[in-house]
Description:
4 copies of one chain form a homotetramer.
Chain A: E1 12-14, E2 21-23, E3 25-28, H1 39-51, E4 56-58, H2 67-78, E5 87-92, H3 110-124, E6 129-134, H4 143-155, E7 159-165, H5 169-182, E8 189-191, H6 200-205, H7 207-212, E9 216-219, H8 243-257, H9 259-279, H10 283-292, E10 297-302, H11 307-319, H12 325-335
Parallel strand pairs in A: 3-4, 3-10, 4-5, 5-6, 6-7, 7-8, 8-9, 9-10
Antiparallel strand pairs in A: 1-2
Amino acid sequence: MSKPDNLPEMEYRFLGRSGLQVSAISLGGWLTYGGHVDREGTYACMKAAYDCGVNFFDCAEGYAEGESEKVMGEAIKKYEWKRNDIVISTKLYWGDAFSNSKVNNRGLSRKHVIEGMNQSLERLQLEYVDLIYAHRPDRHTPMEETVRAFNHLINTGKALYWGTSEWNADEIAQAWRYADKLGLIGPVMEQPRYNMLERIQVEREYAHLYREVGLGLTVFSPMRQGILSGKYKNGIPDGSRFAQTQVEFIAGFWKQTGKAEFQAMADTVSKLEPIAERLGVKQSVLALAWVLANPNVSSAITGASSQAQVYENIEAVRAYKKLTPEIMKEIDEILNNKPPTVTMRY
Amino acid sequence: MSKPDNLPEMEYRFLGRSGLQVSAISLGGWLTYGGHVDREGTYACMKAAYDCGVNFFDCAEGYAEGESEKVMGEAIKKYEWKRNDIVISTKLYWGDAFSNSKVNNRGLSRKHVIEGMNQSLERLQLEYVDLIYAHRPDRHTPMEETVRAFNHLINTGKALYWGTSEWNADEIAQAWRYADKLGLIGPVMEQPRYNMLERIQVEREYAHLYREVGLGLTVFSPMRQGILSGKYKNGIPDGSRFAQTQVEFIAGFWKQTGKAEFQAMADTVSKLEPIAERLGVKQSVLALAWVLANPNVSSAITGASSQAQVYENIEAVRAYKKLTPEIMKEIDEILNNKPPTVTMRY
Amino acid sequence: MSKPDNLPEMEYRFLGRSGLQVSAISLGGWLTYGGHVDREGTYACMKAAYDCGVNFFDCAEGYAEGESEKVMGEAIKKYEWKRNDIVISTKLYWGDAFSNSKVNNRGLSRKHVIEGMNQSLERLQLEYVDLIYAHRPDRHTPMEETVRAFNHLINTGKALYWGTSEWNADEIAQAWRYADKLGLIGPVMEQPRYNMLERIQVEREYAHLYREVGLGLTVFSPMRQGILSGKYKNGIPDGSRFAQTQVEFIAGFWKQTGKAEFQAMADTVSKLEPIAERLGVKQSVLALAWVLANPNVSSAITGASSQAQVYENIEAVRAYKKLTPEIMKEIDEILNNKPPTVTMRY
Amino acid sequence: MSKPDNLPEMEYRFLGRSGLQVSAISLGGWLTYGGHVDREGTYACMKAAYDCGVNFFDCAEGYAEGESEKVMGEAIKKYEWKRNDIVISTKLYWGDAFSNSKVNNRGLSRKHVIEGMNQSLERLQLEYVDLIYAHRPDRHTPMEETVRAFNHLINTGKALYWGTSEWNADEIAQAWRYADKLGLIGPVMEQPRYNMLERIQVEREYAHLYREVGLGLTVFSPMRQGILSGKYKNGIPDGSRFAQTQVEFIAGFWKQTGKAEFQAMADTVSKLEPIAERLGVKQSVLALAWVLANPNVSSAITGASSQAQVYENIEAVRAYKKLTPEIMKEIDEILNNKPPTVTMRY
Lengths: 346, 346, 346, 346
């Protein structure tokens, strides 16, 4: 499948207060690359994304037991992309797949941060990553140990910037506290879940951090695992090769939230359909565009499993500019989950 | 000898306040590996321990003139253990064996810390150790020089954590004072002697340090070199291949403590026999379990010289949970050496 | 062409407050080496300069899309100059030529500073440069990120000193503020444009910095791209191989300043002719000498495109000593652009 | 010549407050090794010294234009001495021999400190030296630049300790001031000239530094270039292979001090002869012993040009213990140059 003619030009945003620029749409390997998308499929998605101006590719040691990193690394090599043209990330926390032991291969101890990084770089066939994330907070390891360990990665040239994923605001503030105290580098970005249905952390909890430490966001799950595309409004579509996976996914979801809540979400999503139609975009594009409309979002990480999906996602770069204050208000009324504004007076 | 079926599952403990986890029972090379236990015997003990979940193997440059490190390094290679699954330590202070000169190869000068580390890593065939210990305090080297030298090892990737062995509480506090002043990393663990007969340092002297710096303990000599197993209550057992060594050992002991004191200890130990019987464990297991019952102990380093002994030691992981407050009180009354509690009010 | 007999001995000056000495006249690659001067021509100029005592050769990643660095690197190799005898600089900011992407290859983010440095060293075939410049201020990257990135280059041995080019005085002061706060190394030199027609930044704006941080200056464009040589007083000379380039240059200049302003400058320059004649030097030598007469100038970077020009420039080392206070006053009256003196009272 | 039977055992002293131990007598390469003593002669001296327990060998980039370092490096290799058994020093300042240029190869700029160190290590065939000295103060380079550069050598593992040679007390204090301010390592030792005839710097000027920073001394010229051996009391001895050198030496000396002053020194030295005789040692041994009697001296660097001289020097280790307070007083009365005691009250 070749690149459509009418795609918008990619937009690049600074990663929070840092001097690094990432494409507003990026590609991530969670649940897909190295997993249920095969090698050739991954290569094709990455190539399509790169050709659309995507420069940021996101990974983690924990994705598909390291396969995700391997396949991404192979694609980078295969297409001979210049290292300085791309922004590669990975995340450390769940290194259990690479061990026989139940301990020390998970979390943010100095041991796992250093050993995990070396193993990730080997799988990626890279000398360094641009971004290294602490994939979760580790409440068993002292914050100072973790802050020092990530700075060690930066000092030894194995990573250029470090950040967090799914940390609480106060944990990020604690990390900065130790960085400041010791003259070290603090976390410049956070990777939270963010979409129309899950707003509170990005819109309220982190509010002080955008101003105080210039936190950048690379958000994942912008479509709430497909729910926001509207594809579940009539149940699970048949015949698709992912049907089985989706059955399991929804079953898992139900377990988490209850069937009633899932249905309530699907209903809300249905109400967004007319807005998408009015803007002339698919519902999935609207969902992604809505995420990009938040200026604190540096990049929305998408998990496309085909070139077509990649191209579709790129549409959001144009679509989000159509989201006028009026339309945003309309959407807020449908969603009915807008957190109260945080007022900062000090 | 194959692993018994009914062994308890290994327990892992954080090394003090750090994010590193070590098995509650660990294996050390003092007086054994590279010494009177031969190569094959060492390999077998290490394999048996590893198969029981032991992840921490302790060594020192001074053990068996470096042979201990060599044999341990060979075993790690032989069994192809993953580096991230194991915690390897060594200690620097007595490097005299590797020199013609009487000076600069002993102690904690920057010269010996750096040179000793490089030589240890070569013998171990490793790129780094997890833990590096200052094997004794060096009262001739300024504390600042030593703290800087161990941090140099960490910064250059040759060690992940540093600690001390048989330092006084105030020396550890001094090391932290310099670490704090210079923004460096302080010692996270201490390796003291600790057993039913030698309690004062661990239970009283270090008390402030558990709270103030989160000091972790990897204790050695949990059976007071076998005395607590009860095997000397009727004199020295015959026919064992270690008899001769033991004769010398006890002779040495007598020189240190006097024959009367040795007998007094043996008598005390005898009184513990009924308790062990009541709990259904050997006396040696009781002694080890008693050490593990102290929550400030991260790991008890054992010096098994056969697979059977390894397996026996593992029993302590289950046994220590049977040590109720009542039994602990009973033991304290027999031992009659419990230090007064330290009350911290500031 | 061989070296004339009567050239003055080179003068060396400290680079601001630093302990490094650079030749008062240096050779730079802007618009010339790797560009419209061919390989052999560049080699010849560098050799001629070196033989006259020039020890400082200036370059930038952005000159001639990297060709300038390549040709300079080849010359250093070809003539087997000892690394300790020469001072090599390059500058980072415009790395766009080495990328497909529009982002992250320009500016002073940690990513570009580190990646740009590695690529420059490869082109130069050197392990390190003596001086690394931030070629422009990057107002999108936090100053702290930039200061840390340049210190990383120094700590990893890829550069010995760092500085700025065409930064504002307050930006330089901010860089020092972060360096001081973090115990890092501040920028020791600035590379501004400085000549008889452009004086305000060097003579007024930076005035506090010479005293407060000991800023050194390596100035470029000492002849205002040839205007100060007097060669444009009668229009553009014919027949020279650069005529076409010069037509474009002047056309470009006119666009920038307006034709009237260009003519006014040419008129002013004409009035300097009698002074040059009185001193027995060419007008271009007078212009360069005037730059050297400023004691805050560590080195004047010239862009000779022939050996003859190199030798001519060297004359300025002798000529500037003839610039008595009376002659300087006469020149100031002609130029009529002397900034008021900065008085520092605090 | 084989080692005499009755030589005293070597004494080792801590280098000031540091944890490093150096032999009280050491061997230095000034004016000898790589110079007028040939290769085989140097090897023999070094071997003889090593066999007597000398562990400290002193060199400098400036000695014999680098030949001194080369020959010492060869001897270390030839005799296969263990690196941890010996203490090797060199000094940076006069690197002019390794350059065509008059600038940047002398002094203590970051450029020369780093480049000079790399070149010295190459000549010595070593990965690191134990001690690196700033061979003179460099009043053109800011102290902060020099302190940072020497710390860079330590951080990159090229040297273990740094110090100074012939610096003023206030310059050493300034270096410590910057080290303290920046959390860096200060100079731990100074290498001054010290002998019976030149006492003021060691005995008075540095007095505060022994207490305040624990300064160690490795003193050179303990016999004032042979004058204190008494060999010039009757003029210059004939027939020796160094006669010609000595003629020049004394001529040079005269230029420096005047013939009268030289004669006055020779007369003073003559008066020490009876004391040497009383103690049963040569006058040269008395001179060296007198230096060792100062407890602030860590090592006296001797420049023996034959094995016999090496063995003779070792005698001083025994001889200095015979210097009772009464004898010291008698010597002071002859020398008549004892500086007043420094009283420190703050």
